[in-house]
Amino acid sequence: MPSTSTDTSVHSEGPRMTAPLLEVEALTIGIRRRGRDDVRIVEDLSFAIQPGERFGIVGESGSGKSLTLRAIAGLLPKGVEVLSGTIRYRGDDLGGMSAAARRKLMGPQIAMVFQEPMTALNPVVRVGEQIAEGPRRHLGLSRAAAADLAVEMMRRTGIPDPARRARAYPHELSGGLRQRIMIAMALSCSPRLLLCDEPTTALDVTVQHQVLQLVEELCDETGTALAFVTHDLAVVNQTCTELAVMYSGHRVEAGPVKDVFRDPRHPYTRGLLESAPDFDDPDRVLVPIPGFPPNVAQRPDGCPFAPRCRFAIEACTTAMPAQEDVGPGRTAACIRTHEIGSAAPGEPVEVLA
Amino acid sequence: MLHRLRFIPGRLLQAVPVAFGVTIIVFFLSHLLPGNAAIALLGERATKASVAALTEQLGLDRPLWEQYFRFLGQIVHGNLGTSLTYQLPVGELVLQAVPVTLSLLGLALVMALVISIPLASLAASRPNRAGDLVARGFTLVGQGMPQFWVGIMLILLLAVNVRAFPVGGYGDGAGAHLYFLFLPALTLAIAMSPTIIRSLRASMIGVLESEYVGTAKSKGAAGLPLFRDHVLRNAAIPTVSIIGVNLGYLVGGSLVIEKVFALPGLGSLMVNAIFARDFPTIQGVTLFVAIFVVVVGILTDVVYTMLDPRVDLAGGTTP
Amino acid sequence: MTTPTTALVGLKQRRRASRSRSLRAWYRNGSLMAGIVIVGLLVLVAVLAPVIAPYDPIAQHLEQALESPSAAHWLGTDKYGRDVLSRLIWGARVDLRVGFLAVLIPFVVGSVIGAIAGYVGGIVDTILMRIVDVFFAFPFYVMVIVLVFVLGAGETSIYLAIAAVSWVSYAKIVRGEVIVARQQDYVVAARLGGMSHTRLLVRHIAPNVMSQAVIYAMSDIVMDIMAIVTLGYLGLGIEPPTAEWGSMIVDGQEFITTQWQQTTIPGLVVVVTSLGLSWLGDGISDLLSPDRRR
Fold first, then answer.
1. How does strand A80-89 pair with strand A92-93?
2. Could you tell me which of A163, A225, A239 has the C-alpha nearest to residue A191?
3. Each residue of C181-203: pLDDT tens digit?
4. What is the model's pTM?
5. Inter-chain CB proximity B211 and A119 less than 8 Å
6. Which residues of C touch B153 (CB under 8 A)?
């Protein structure tokens, strides 16, 4: 039975046991233009994150996944705004809050880790001070107490010799260390929700793994929920339990990570998995997805993936497909979703972990 | 940080040939005077005796290179010659005048920052809106106004029409000095501000769009703390460099301002010496000012190194 | 496979294309238009001075000294009975002409020296740059004032003094640009193709490099006019009784309490002139380097 697209829950069955930590409902983000149609970058996006859950948002560049995180954090770039829809944190509508009230959340409730730690850290302030800034502001700690907390956070993120390193400037540290600083900074006020915008993309592969493990461990320890944006399927597979797949601003598939990867129900998800290399099956032919994502300002009617989709039919181009239930806690936005599972050889597609 | 200041000895060493060059140019100034320098300095109707005395004093009858070394030797001993007008050592006159000029420059710099930082911040936070246009308009007009004319206008408005400030002079005592320095410093500040505002506005716009300001906001920073700790600390860096480069020009400007407001600083000393054809004084002040500019250049580098921890000036040669 | 020739041709085509794009838009450039209008008007006034000035600027009529503005004398008369408006108009001739000429010499001399330093590099560059450093140590106004004193007041001294002090800025700018340019692919390609140094410098590097120097020259004119006016104020500039805005300001300063317009108006004229030149300069700089947006 198809759910309406405004159903925020990726779990379409079962009563709610706890209220979701974060509820995004029919969120549309874009650029308002006078006299012409608004440019919609993210369209009608809905999902929810439970407390302590590790939620991945997967998509390629331009899918709108980073903007979604920024909208939650209230850090949309100039000119880009939330055109419609709501973001509710613990039941409170973030859009309806005053700027001051929202700022009070940033740090102790919601924190963000950015992609490029070199540019995301203030180059002229010592890293210890930068970590201490949040606790001083939100937890009312004195300068000394905050400094101690900063060193402690650095130790917990696995930075060797944290007391000395706290006096360093960002440019004196390696990329991996800088990202650990960012994580320490984000977790310094013990937030309930950690937003991660491709935190490992800019790092060496060997360091990536360490940082990911660190994030998982710390979130487990503190019970912090994770909203993890990435284009890397392997990372999502390792780190997250639930995911939403985005294409051109729309949510095309959602559900538990293992289920989705084992049995994708949207052509795009299938395409992603089929084009990803797999060490365990080196002879598997990689099938790239032909074509390019549509220009945001000129999205065609109907399913945005239709032009590149090998399952596309006439009906795909007339209207945006609704979210269909495809299993326990799973949805996919494709009118042929029930055929996709059975159409191709049904072997599970392994993802490099 | 001390480690990063190790560039100073090297920079001082680099300054030595520059200082030599300065002395050469200053020395040759006297030899640009057409005809017999002594007569040119004293005028056509000078007595033979005074011409001879001046010739002897300036050593004008000796070969050129000997004169130069004599000149150098005197400088090293702090002897900048004797003023023809006051019959006092030039060094003494310069030392008396320096505090006035330094106070003027210092006060002007403070005032310029007080004017510039708020205007630049307003302009940068809302580009192309009213505040920005005001700031840019001020910058444009400010650059077009002759400094001395601004001084005269301020006198007209605030000293003549409204007797808020004195028309000129320096007063006695620190408090009085500040009072008398207010209008001239304001004039200089108005002259300095356009450059500072332009640079600060541009670097602030860059900083406001940077990732780390986004990070700061994600920690809930806003308003004054955001501005002070994140924006200004970074945006100030290129501006300090620009101020340093322009300081030479400003010192020159202050000289003219001193004439407008009759302040007993280096500027008045110089200008009066020019009209009195007091060549040793002219030479002495020029030398002092040039060396001062070189020293300020090094100091600017020091301040710059202190502000920006990424900079390591001992690395290579500066461009 | 791009040969050196095709690399150069490609570059020329791109430059031509971007220039025609920018030329087409010049009339839409607000500051450029404003600058052209203002400077054009001033030049017109200067050129037509003999025709439009109501009185002789230097003839003295002591019986008419220090009159307030009236129908006969729109801006009044100065302490020698000379019509202020006429002096203002004739002053435009002096200040504009001297300002423009004063920029040319340092522009040419400085650019050539800078180009040599940047292109040849090595010990020549080091020596020339040390010399530049020495000149940079002298504050502009101090040196100009001293040099004019030494060389004697008058127009020639002004040119020499300003040239002696200003050439360094052009040298530094052009040197910097040449250093960047000589590392570009098209230069390497041309040298590999056997082009001589001179031809390379003159035909290919110079056009790219000079735009920055020209942009600086536009703001330098403003600075030079300031210097000329300042020298006039100090009594070191153009010899009296020639009408010149700076000397008019100092003449008027004496009577600031009674005839304040005599010291104020010439200054305002200087401000307007500078504004016009600044806008013109901004406009030209936009035209010359469309990809380096301010």
1. antiparallel
2. A225
3. 777 777 778 878 877 777 777 77
4. 0.78
5. yes
6. 264, 267
